[in-house]
Amino acid sequence: MNKIAVFAGLPLLMLADANVLEATGGIDMSGTIVRLISFLLGVCGATYLAAGLWSRSEKGSVSWKYLSISMILFVFWNIIGAFGILLDVLTVKKFDSSIAISDEALNIYLIIIQILDPVIEVVVFLILLFGLRKIIHAMRTRPWTVFSKDEDESDTNE
Amino acid sequence: MNEDFFVVLNTVASMIVIICSVLSFQLLVEISRELKGLKTMDAMWKNFIIMINLFILLGITRAVGSIGTIIFEGFHPVFEALLSVTLILFFVFAIQLSISIEEITE
User: Fold this and answer.
1) Can you tell me the ipTM of this complex?
2) Chain A interface includes B65 (CB < 8 A)
3) DSSP A25
4) Taking CB atoms and an 8 Å cutoff, what residues of chain A touch B24?
5) What are phi and psi of B3, to 5 degrees?
6) Domain membership of residue A83 as a residue range
7) Closest CA to A148 of B36, B104, B65, B91
């Protein structure tokens, strides 16, 4: 029974050791890398989607353009998030090792990021809300215009 | 700059994001109701609804996280982990949605 308990507890012990080794300099490096990778993946996905929605809006309803703009702003939000992580790491590492960065510059960057982060987030969600309203309006009033290629034809006929 | 300024800014931004997210979710429910009328709901709309749901979840997690961190600092890693998982899922469904949009556009 004791052996089973030791085996069961082994992974936990290993995890604890890994945390002690990795949490050097007051930074949880594994957590930081996961956050950084997730922000970069967010940048890639949102850029690809923004491009797809933009090309869709050129052939169908203009309401897709609002979602595309929302995604472009979401890309900036992710870039700011990734940049914020890097600045956090730099701030902690500055005290440990001799990295030559002036305090003023670091503070200014941090303040800019702290202001831009919530502002862009609000704009992203406001534009998303507006875009969804446009799509539902188009679906109710003229459903064929959501994806239709007839819109261009009707415009040329008019 | 004053620390209180950032607390107020984050709180107000989080409130607006939560309100926008709830309203967006309501609109998404209406869109899915409209789509129920159709016999076949194609992959593009399914991916669209999942992707927007994840996006809304992302906004709510971020907003609740920033308010929760003000109340109790210990929440911060939990919300960061949730945000990372949601972002990775968002990436997957964003790519799927883009592919299905491209198929329709072609």
Assistant:
1) 0.89
2) no
3) G
4) 125, 128-129, 132
5) -65, -35
6) 28-152
7) B104
Is residue A2 situated within a structural domain?
no
Polymer length in residues for chain A: 158
Domain positions in chain B = 3-105
Question: In whole angstroms, what is the distance from residue A66 CA to residue B19 CA?
Answer: 19
The distance of A47 to chain B (nearest Cα, Å) reads: 9
Contacts of B84 in chain A (CB under 8 A): 34-35, 38
CA–CA separation, B84 vs A60, rounded Å?
33
pTM: 0.81
d(CA B37, CA B66): 39
Q: How many domains does chain A have?
A: 1
Taking chain A (158 residues) in runs of 10, the rounded mean pLDDT of each run is 51 46 62 90 93 84 86 93 87 73 80 89 93 85 66 48
Q: Is residue A157 part of a domain?
A: no
Residue B50 contacts A, CB cutoff 8 Å: no
Residue A12 inside a domain? The answer is: no
